[in-house]
Amino acid sequence: MRSARIALCARRTSETSHERALAYRGLRAWHGAAQALHGVNLTIAEGEAVALIGRNGSGRSILAKAVMGLVRCEGELR
To answer: What does the DSSP assignment read for the chain?
Structure first.
């Protein structure tokens, strides 16, 4: 099975802080019984605007839902 790729594009909207607002390490998430994300590392700094870019079925929606706590997921949230 070929691995799908998601690009994360971020742009700082404010120069007030460089602290991270969200950081996941080894994020795994499921869509029903199927594991959709495998070991994703994600760090978003405070004041960044973020866009997820990827092909159909690459996991963009599942990543967003995992961050919001709407799907079953595992990993380290910092």
So the answer is: -PPP-EEEEEEES-SS---EEEEEEEEEEEETTEEEEEEEEEEEETTEEEEEEE-TTSSHHHHHHHHHT-S-EEEEE-
